[in-house]
Amino acid sequence: MPKTNHEHILILDFGSQVTQLIARRLRESGVYCEVWPFNQASDEKIKAYNPKGIILAGGPCSVLDDDAPAAPQIVFEMGVPIFGICYGQQTMVKQLGGVVEAEKSREFGRAYVDVLDHSDITTDVWDKGANEQVWMSHGDHVATLPEGFSVIAKSDGAPYAFIADTDRHFYGVQFHPEVVHTPHGADLLKNFTHNVCGCSGDWTMASFREEQIAKIRAQVGDEKVICGLSGGVDSSVTAVLIHEAIGDQLTCIYVDTGLMREGESEQVVSLFRDHYNIPLIHEDASDLFLGGLEGISDPEIKRKVIGGLFIDVFDECSRRVADGGKPAKFLAQGTLYPDVIESVSFTGGPSQTIKSHHNVGGLPDDMAMELVEPMRELFKDEVRALGREMNMPEDLIRRHPFPGPGLAIRIPGEITQEKIDILRKADVVYLDEIRKAGLYDVIWQAFAVLLPVKTVGVMGDARTYDYVCALRAVTSTDGMTADYYPFEHEFLGRTSTRIINEVHGINRVVYDITSKPPGTIEWE
What we know:
This protein is of the alpha/beta class. The chain has helices at residues 19-28, 43-49, 87-95, 185-196, 205-220, 233-246, 264-275, 286-292, 299-322, 337-343, 380-389, 394-397, 417-436, 489-502; strands spanning 8-13, 32-37, 53-56, 82-85, 99-101, 107-115, 131-138, 141-144, 150-154, 162-165, 170-173, 225-229, 250-256, 280-284, 330-332, 370-372, 445-459, 462-475, 483-484, 506-511. It contains 14 helices and 20 strands. Helix 13 packs antiparallel against helix 14 (489-502).
């Protein structure tokens, strides 16, 4: 994302899977921020960004390793406030002359700190003498402070759980204030950005909308843009924002893979062609995708096949946009920040790719179009907020996330039309029960999975040998971490009975109670 006119904070990432939560907390308080890999932040780039403050985030490495990641030395010489979190605290201490010790008193999970002193970050949040809950995840810990630092709080496993150099406005915490398990963590971060860095909190969805419209117009000029619609929130908000910026220079392409949820294709066509009057190409390629997936069970190969076929069909449809004239120069995508983070590991850095995403890194090298990705730095809930800012239909804005490969990755094993039909029906019943229970907006994502397993059952006086259906429901704020939803047994029993009675081909239902991590939200 380009440099904005807003006050902004720079977050340097050392590979933590929860660094993005820091960005979310800052944005919730109206402060714009960007996350950069530590090893892709040159001195010149940091100076040019001119941040009001810098946050050194966590990471999986040890600062005692020979090749341990380190913050660019310039961050300590710029005269701006610094806040080190977990690994960020440790590398700051080491780089400024302190000592970090190897694993002796590890802390993972809920812990409590004794507040020994006051600081600008604890103002109106923690009182001196209090015992406060935090979330720890560390082995190494700070053993000796650099000159100028004092201790603000300690825990059983971290004698310097919270430190501060008040003169230089350098702060460090061993715990993670960005996670919900540190109850007042968001307030501590807000004190850093507002009280210490002097941010006023001037970043809003209204301002983001205006800035992106101006950016899109400047980037596109009078050229044509095509946008791939998936039926989900991300691509829909992207399309509406771009249409607001450039009108009929935008053409949307909806490739119907045959792997969509029940009734979704009809909803997409009705909304964009009839309600928004956006030029739309609707291409039914369901037979092509089903044929391409025949005999394939490996989930990554499924994604690559679907991605490859999608590009082929999309490319053919894009040629129609030219209609004998000038072809589209730009391709719009609804890429979000979590897509980027999960799909791209830092070159030479400690974070690792979790899985591929169909809309990131899947475009051909010789693609003739330039990308327009106005949502690339937004989280899912921020996209929803932008949709509401543009007065988009609430039922679309609230729709649960849906993966690009569609139902194909909710059918482990080989894909057949019979399995797709069975899964669709089970999914409809499941979501209907969730809506009836008033839980749809409480749950981040819910869906059924058709397992590649058949079990014996008895229905009436007959023996059955049918598929097992797994139900999945999670709560989350951005999809980076998630907890399973604790349905009451009565709900699960009622839903199971309906699925078995109404969906031919299923005779057993199970519920997935795995959180993320260690699992992922989707099964493949």
